[in-house]
Write a structure and sequence with these properties.
There is one protein chain. By secondary structure, the protein is of the alpha+beta class. It has six helices and six strands, in the order αββαααββαββα. The chain has two domains: 66 residues, no CATH class; 107 residues, Aspartate Aminotransferase, domain 1 (Alpha-Beta Complex). The chain has a four-stranded antiparallel beta sheet, covered by helices on one side. The protein has a two-stranded antiparallel ribbon with strand order 1-2.
């Protein structure tokens, strides 16, 4: 988003190419999460070692998934720019909406389809039924119970007191979720 350009470590420093493993997949960019396929590029010795480990832990990806991934990677790429713009607009909607809520602080991510928002400003507050919010887990459970909005505690990612919210849905659903979150936060007492 916002004119940032992704650069792989191998492209950034070609002299390190023999020490770099590059992995990627089609799940996110091409909305193919259920296809469960990715790829890697590395020095030959590392690829051989990876094949030994992989052959003992998983089976081969299906031929249909392989063909679909090839089509995604080699076919027309114009859909990516449109999708990126759609996600940028959703990102801005979510970040602006969260930052308008007292006690929540949300940075604007440069990529992805989710954001981590800080809820430290809400910890210590008391819910309408008398529970004190002591952690990001408490806050996320409160949002689920009170607002019927599912978010993931940042502590699940080693990032407490934050919460992760996805914006991989329609703007209408995001507006509804933001309104519910705002109402739930307004109901908290100091």
């Amino acid at each position: 988003y916002d004119g940032f350009r992704f650069v792989t470590p191998a492209a950034l420093e070609p002299a390190l190419r023999e020490r770099i493993l590059t992995v990627n997949g089609v799940s996110k960019a091409y909305a193919m999460t259920g296809w469960r396929i990715g790829y890697g590029a590395a020095p030959e010795a590392l690829v051989r070692a990876m094949a030994v480990v992989q052959s003992q832990s998983t089976s081969n990806p299906s031929s249909v998934s392989q063909a679909a991934a090839i089509e995604a990677l080699t076919g027309p790429q114009d859909v990516l720019a449109a999708r990126r713009e759609s996600f940028r607009a959703r990102r801005d909607l979510v970040v602006d909406g969260l930052n308008a809520i007292d006690g929540i602080d949300c940075s604007r991510p440069e990529g992805a389809f989710y954001t981590f928002a800080g809820c430290a400003g809400l910890l210590g507050r008391v819910t309408p039924d008398g529970r004190r919010l002591a952690s990001d887990r408490d806050f996320c459970a409160y949002l689920l119970d009170e607002a019927k909005v599912a978010v993931v505690p940042g502590s699940a990612f080693g990032a407490s007191p934050f919460f992760r919210i996805s914006y991989a849905t329609s703007q209408d659903e995001l507006r509804e979720a933001l309104a519910r979150i705002a109402m739930a936060c307004d109901a908290l007492r100091n």
